[in-house]
Specification:
Layout: E1 2-11, E2 20-27, E3 30-35, E4 42-47, E5 52-55, E6 57-59, H1 75-78, E7 82-87, H2 99-108, H3 111-116, H4 123-133, E8 138-141, E9 143-144, H5 145-153, H6 162-177, E10 182-186, H7 197-207, E11 213-217, H8 225-239, E12 243-245, H9 258-271, E13 276-280, E14 285-289, H10 303-311, H11 313-325, E15 339-343, H12 355-362, H13 366-376, E16 382-386, H14 390-398, E17 403-404, H15 425-440, H16 446-453, H17 455-461, E18 477-480, E19 503-506, E20 509-513, E21 516-517
Parallel strand pairs: 1-4, 1-5, 6-7, 7-8, 9-10, 10-11, 11-12, 12-13, 13-17
Antiparallel strand pairs: 1-2, 2-3, 5-18, 14-16, 15-16, 18-19, 19-20, 20-21
């Protein structure tokens, strides 16, 4: 007898090919057969009449490494149909860490961070924590270059000595030997941003012979977008490893024309044999820490050093001017109306308000309101910024190598992960593609959209037995209603699960059934091929 039999589905198999009517038989975690299975019986039969069966979706850019140990149910992701998350992004992974890093994390921890505990040192110990706790989804873990640099050198802008380079290389080697799939960088975030191209190449050369990947939040997505893309291409070429460009965008109205040019650069690099591809999320707003608006040098030494600089009038004036100098001339003061505080544990009354509004309430200029909030919250406030073009977004979705990454966390509508007003991408990225850009606007066909979210990223990662609905593949399966699938999370009310995705299976077990989470944890820490 089969474990699960899905009857009467329209199978969209992740290859990009047309859908077809079939049943899906599942046994021992894998797809046993696909076809008209009239006489088959199973322990559980799911009637998928009117539903599309697709491969489990792969989130190519996720920060859930810091939330899965808190709530392994992965509520906001698995309910979107996500069955695999690539974690440890933007140069900031939860491991490996030093005692000093652990102390700093615990010092600045909110309610969620306190639960996380940071009770590990090595990358392997962190992965053991995930396995012991259990997972509702599969994970592909990366080691963060910024985290490793901080462990070896501290939060300094200094150039590494040869011994420090060797120590960072040893950390990369150990992390990969313990389960990392490669390294990530966040080259606008200190201390990773202090690294030169050559320093990153030195680390990537350690990852490459181990089959590693280089995932990068590149060094700039606004005025420096094209130079930052050129750097990512150079790193891939010199180190000899595949590159993934994170959350591709042209940031700021003055830079919108650069989006198409950047995609042409990626095409040209691939023609030269460099394996470089991008991912994106389907929103015109981004999200990061409010302190990211401040210049990189102001962050050297960590959060306490930043706060000390803000407390010094002369240094604060210098920071203020550099923030103003970095504003988009095409937007001017209107830029502050498009900058919204999203999470602010130390001052929750600020959440959902834009900087211009808060500046009025504080009787300050907007830039001074930003500095005041950074100081008041000890650099622990997040923002959402509406800085991208809808036209660019559609053009990027049409780009044949574009994958989808939420740039979000696995959250929940309850408990500490349900606090604040985070970006709705945490709950809505994948159904938004299917609802807005497939059903409503026709930017992509259903088959192509599913391919971009399953088969294409699986091929990039080398996941030969995932990303497709084929006999022998792991049974990561999503059943969705193409007529009703819909993201429901908004910027005002972000903690809302999507509609139209009644069933999600991970490794052959039903995690979501009839829209309810069964509480099972069949996910795995995936091993690199």
């Amino acid at each position: 007898m089969l474990d699960i039999l899905i009857r009467n589905a329209k199978v969209v198999d992740g290859s990009g090919g047309p859908g077809y009517a079939a049943d899906i038989a599942i046994a021992e975690g894998r797809i046993a057969e696909i076809g008209r299975l009239e006489g088959a019986t199973a322990g559980e039969v799911i009637d998928a009449q009117g539903l599309v069966a697709a491969p489990g979706l792969i989130d190519m850019h996720s920060h859930s490494d810091s939330t899965l140990p808190i709530n392994p149910l992965a509520e906001s992701k698995v309910r979107q149909g996500v069955t695999t998350e690539v974690i440890g992004m933007c140069g900031s992974s939860t491991a490996p860490i030093s005692e000093a890093q652990r102390a700093e994390h615990l010092r600045s921890a909110g309610s969620a961070g306190a639960i996380l505990g940071w009770a590990w040192s090595s990358f392997g110990e962190y992965l053991d924590r995930l396995r012991a706790k259990g997972l509702a989804v599969n994970v592909v873990p990366l080691a963060g270059q910024g985290t490793i640099r901080n462990k070896v050198m501290g939060h300094t802008a200094a150039a590494p000595t040869p011994d420090q380079v060797a120590a960072m290389q040893a950390e990369v080697a150990q992390a990969m030997d313990e389960g990392a799939w490669g390294i990530s960088t966040g080259l606008i975030y200190p201390p990773g941003s202090y690294a030169t191209t050559a320093e990153i190449v030195d680390l990537a050369k350690v990852a490459a012979p181990r089959g590693g990947f280089y995932f990068s939040h590149i060094r700039g997505e606004g005025p420096t977008l094209l130079a930052a893309l050129a750097e990512a291409i150079t790193i891939g070429q010199e180190a000899g490893l595949p590159v993934q460009v994170a959350h591709y965008k042209a940031y700021g109205k003055s830079n919108w024309p650069k989006s198409a040019v950047g995609l042409e650069m990626l095409d040209e690099a691939r023609r030269r044999g460099i394996d470089i591809t991008p991912d994106m999320y389907p929103y015109v707003a981004s999200s990061t820490g409010l302190a990211a608006l401040l210049p990189g040098w102001a962050h050297e030494g960590g959060a306490q050093a930043l706060l000390a600089r803000l407390a010094d009038p002369a240094t604060r004036a210098k920071i203020r001017q550099e923030v103003l100098d970095d504003m988009d001339p095409a937007e001017g003061e209107a830029e502050w109306e498009g900058t919204v505080i999203s999470r602010c544990v130390k001052a929750p009354a600020y959440e959902g308000k834009h900087i211009a509004q808060l500046a009025t309430e504080k009787s300050l200029a907007p830039v001074d309101a930003v500095l005041a909030i950074v100081a008041e919250t000890e650099a622990d406030a997040s923002m959402i910024r509406f800085k991208m073009s809808e036209e660019n977004l559609r053009a990027q979705l049409r780009y044949g190598q574009m994958m989808i990454g939420s740039d979000g966390y696995s959250l929940a509508s309850y408990g500490p992960l349900g606090e604040g007003k985070p970006h709705p991408r945490n709950y809505g990225t994948f159904p938004r593609v299917l609802a807005r850009y497939v059903r409503e606007q026709g930017v992509l066909s259903l088959e192509e959209a599913i391919h971009r979210m399953s088969g294409l990223p699986a091929a990039k990662l080398g996941l030969a037995q995932r990303g497709l609905l084929r006999p022998g593949c792991w049974a990561d399966v999503v059943l969705l209603d193409p007529a009703t699938v819909q993201d429901r999370a908004t910027f005002a009310e972000p903690h809302q699960y999507p509609a139209g995705i009644p069933y999600v299976l991970v490794n052959g077990r039903v995690v979501i059934a009839g829209g309810y989470h069964r509480g099972v944890l069949p996910g795995q820490v995936l091993q690199a091929p």
